[in-house]
Specification:
heterodimer, A: mainly alpha, two-stranded antiparallel sheet, 2 strands, about 65% helix, about 0% strand, globular, B: OB fold (Dihydrolipoamide Acetyltransferase, E2P), Rossmann fold, 6-stranded mixed β-sheet, about 25% helix
Chain lengths: ~375, ~475
């Protein structure tokens, strides 16, 4: 691969000290993406852990791969176009801001771009994907200073923007019902123009449950269907089992902090269990909550975004618990079918508050040591 | 027997560990000693051209003239340079790294009489005779050039000659790669150890127990050997930074009960020296060090004269393997100091580590399965085989980014701090807030910097914040005094 590096180095001078100097972050990002950089440690400690942000973000993407592949099976090739647009538009904004700030391009967008694509319905217009991801990256992250300083999960903020601004494109008619027959829609490209011919659209189980009660939803889709992913929904959220696999992967590799998903599951299980015990006819059973919507995607991949979550470990517990309970509250009492994304966004806002509780606790403890 | 437990910490397993073989390194052509040794500032006692005997006083501590630094060999004082060599004024250059400075305050160079000497001179009588009285014993140890090896656990400075410590910590366990295993030394030289612990008991006074820190599941002999009154064995997990003096002080004295003069810290091999001194009147001046790291073809232990040039120590069989550029470290991989081959082995050095510099730019490195990577995360295939030693090099292994709040630093912090919060507070200048979060308890072990995926220099930055906070307190005090 030496020749490739030599070739790349030929293009470096104008970027480094020349007329393309302003575009240096782009060159730098490309070069270090393809060839691992060799920066010496500036001092003690003289050796460093092999983990870095590129690998870190790449592992999250790895965790999402099973669910992404399922999206292609269940909804055809359209989700790929959505993901490509999401990466391209978000990437341009990221690069633009890096150039303006004269900073290196950070890797956080590798995850945001994919996540945003996975929370969209398969038939969503591509211009809407572009608008959503642009809003999310711009107002969720860049105006606060870029990756590491973002108070919100950019993918979620983009989703909220699209969901509230163009509800018609996120309505039940936008969602495709996956087929049970091999090879799914693997060979198809389903968009709003041809989907009525080649496939069926349908409300998600949560929308059904909101309008007609959960028994109605369960009459259409069994819990097993939901668990394996044979339900309509956002492209990346439907297969609970594959998200569980990917989620366990990022927990085991320590890329995500286990306290957050565990906290969310406890929160959801606890509150939904209590409600179900009170009125099993009206409130959803806990298992339904776990597999019917975006809970797995949200708990493992959205809420665990370390930057927008609290820093303290105790804060992470509270964040997870409240997030989980809030999901149940929204699903059962708010005029929205799904509450995962909004719960997490809301908890992003509360993250500094949860931290504050534990920072004060620590300050009291440290006082005794001083 | 006590058991030491702590959360966090990290067990390193790098290739290049020293073999059990102990090599005798000859004295070399000259020995050089920095007058600014980091924790001590020495004032030179000898003139250029003078002849000195072994154990003759070369320098005295600036703050405590009774504390001597003695010549390890008989020889001629070849050079005395006071003040920074090459710079206008001495003493101005502050060391940015942990450990000793680069001879900024000058140095003394001694040329040994017999360059082929390989062992320390025997039978050289010291001035004054050994005494059982505490103060006389302290004076004798100070004169013999061993006192500066006793450190204050709280400040890290040389112990005060009029201290009344409440406990003495003897470090027998070292976990930083690559420090020598001192337990073995203790088993082999049990008589000297017993005698040394008796001397230590005398030096510290009656109320101070000696806590000998060793590895869990230590050699049986050790527990039977140590029958000295007021000695207690402390078993610690072999996780870095179990040997950090400030850390041990905090764990054994309690973080709330700390203060200067309360805890002494001494290394096990220095206790052996004390024992020899009391028995024979002399001791082996050579440092028991590890010569290790992947940059050496035959890593081993060695007996090295303090002040030897590194190029002499790493010559012959012990030479750098020559596969590309390397970094030579005095001390361990985490807290050591990078030196050139023209450097000198500082007295008290425990290891000379040679680490390869990072050179190879892997194609799509972040996609690599990672068969030879050491990582706190489990993001590499090599994590599936935890018993295998990994390669290490002096590269960042990534690029510097803003904190992504992954919490790895909090996970490994042995003191139980939250380094990422401290760092962020320091980054925006809120050092007071950081201090309320325990900033001043940071022991500078380097683990947070080690694990950081965003490659932030947490250890150095927190150290700077600590200094800022100290300065702030001093200014406030001065202002209060003026008002």
């Amino acid at each position: 691969m030496n020749f490739l590096l030599k070739l790349m180095k030929k293009f470096e001078p104008p970027f480094k000290e020349g007329r393309l100097k302003r575009w240096y972050p782009l060159y730098e990002a490309t070069e270090t993406f393809i060839f691992e950089p060799t920066v010496p440690t500036p001092g003690a400690p003289h050796v460093r852990d092999a983990m870095n942000t590129k690998r870190f973000m790449f592992l999250v993407v790895m965790g999402l791969i099973p669910a992404t592949l399922w999206a292609f099976y269940a909804f055809g090739w359209r989700p790929l176009a959505v993901i490509i647009v999401s990466y391209a538009v978000g990437g341009i904004i990221e690069v633009g801001f890096s150039i303006a700030r004269k900073e290196e391009i950070s890797e956080g967008f590798l995850v945001t771009g994919l996540l945003f694509g996975l929370v969209m319905p398969a038939t969503v217009p591509l211009w809407l994907v572009a608008a959503g991801v642009a809003f999310g990256v711009l107002f969720g992250k860049e105006i606060f200073g870029g990756t590491g300083r973002n108070p919100f999960n950019p993918a979620l903020l983009g989703f909220a923007f699209v969901y509230l601004s163009w509800p018609v494109h996120m309505a039940p008619s936008a969602y495709i019902v996956p087929t049970m027959h091999w090879p799914g829609y693997l060979a198809k490209y389903l968009h709003s123009g041809n989907m009525m011919v080649d496939a069926l659209s349908g409300a998600t189980p949560l929308s059904m449950a909101q309008v007609h009660g959960y028994h109605y939803a369960l009459a259409h889709y069994s819990l097993t269907d939901m668990f394996f992913g044979f339900i309509p929904g956002a492209t990346g959220e439907v297969s609970a089992v594959l998200l569980l696999l990917g989620g366990l992967f990022i927990l085991v590799t320590r890329v995500a902090n286990w306290r957050i998903p565990v906290g969310i599951f406890i929160g959801v299980g606890l509150l939904s269990g209590i409600l179900y015990a009170i009125n099993p006819g009206k409130y959803y059973p806990p298992l339904f909550h776990f597999v019917a919507g975006g809970l797995m995607l949200g708990a493992f991949f959205m809420a665990t975004d370390p930057v927008s979550a609290p820093d303290t470990q105790g804060g992470k517990w509270l964040y997870g618990l409240f997030c989980g309970m809030n999901i149940v509250v929204i699903r059962q009492f708010a005029p929205l079918p799904e509450g995962v994304m909004f719960s997490i966004l809301l908890m992003n806002l509360f993250a500094p508050l949860f931290d504050e509780i534990f920072l004060r606790r620590r300050a009291r403890k440290e006082k005794a040591y001083a | 027997m006590k058991h030491l437990t702590f959360n966090g910490g990290y067990q390193f397993n790098f290739r290049g560990a020293p073999s059990a073989e102990v090599v005798d390194v000859s004295v070399g052509e000259s020995l050089r000693f920095d007058l600014d040794a980091g924790t001590v500032t020495w004032v030179c006692e000898v003139a250029q051209g003078a002849h000195v005997d072994a154990f003759a006083v070369l320098a005295r501590a600036k703050d405590a003239p009774e504390v001597c630094f003695v010549s390890p060999v008989a020889g001629t004082v070849a050079r005395v340079v006071v003040g920074a060599a090459g710079s206008d004024e001495g003493g101005k250059v502050a060391s940015a790294e942990l450990g000793a400075s680069d001879g900024a305050a000058g140095f003394v160079e001694v040329t040994p009489d017999d360059a082929s000497a390989t062992t320390s001179p025997e039978g050289m009588a010291l001035d004054g005779s050994w005494s059982d009285q505490r103060n006389e014993a302290r004076a004798a140890v100070a004169r013999a050039g061993l006192w500066w090896r006793i450190r204050d656990g709280f400040t890290g400075a040389v112990a005060g000659l009029d201290d009344s410590p409440e406990q003495v910590i003897v470090r027998g366990l070292f976990t930083e790669p690559f420090f020598p295993v001192e337990e073995q030394l203790a088993v082999e030289r049990s008589d000297a150890l017993v005698r040394g612990l008796e001397v230590l008991d005398k030096l510290a006074g009656q109320q101070a127990p000696a806590l000998v820190v060793v590895r869990q599941g230590m050699p049986k002999e050790l527990s039977e050997l140590v029958k000295v009154k007021s000695v207690e064995i402390v078993e610690a997990p072999a996780r870095y930074p179990a040997e950090n003096p400030q850390f041990l002080d905090g764990l054994l004295a309690g973080w709330s009960g700390r203060g200067s003069g309360r805890t002494w810290v001494i290394d096990l091999q220095d206790v052996l020296r004390l024992g020899d001194l009391a028995t024979t009147g002399v001791y082996d001046v050579r440092e028991y060090v590890a010569l290790a790291g992947e940059g050496l073809s035959k890593p081993s232990h060695a007996m090295v004269f303090p002040g030897s040039s590194i190029s002499h120590v790493l010559s012959g069989d012990r030479a750098v393997s020559g596969k590309g550029p390397v970094r030579v470290l005095l001390g361990g991989m985490l807290t050591g100091k990078s030196v050139s081959l023209d450097g000198w082995v500082t007295p008290g050095t425990r290891s000379v580590v040679v680490v390869p510099e990072h050179q190879k730019r892997r194609f799509l490195g972040f996609l690599a399965p990672g068969l030879d990577e050491d990582s706190f995360s489990y993001g590499f295939l090599s994590n599936l085989a935890p018993g295998h030693a990994r390669g290490a090099h002096a590269g960042l292994r990534g690029q510097v980014r803003y904190c992504i709040s992954c919490s790895y630093c909090e996970w490994v912090c042995p003191v139980g701090l939250n380094p990422q919060t401290l760092w962020k507070l320091g980054d925006i200048g809120e050092v007071e807030e950081a201090a309320s979060q325990g900033l001043m308890r940071c022991i500078g072990c380097g683990l947070c910097s080690y694990v950081c995926p965003a490659k932030i220099e947490l250890t150095a930055d927190l150290k700077r914040s600590q200094e800022q906070y100290r300065q702030m307190l001093a200014e406030e005090e001065a202002a209060a005094g003026a008002a």
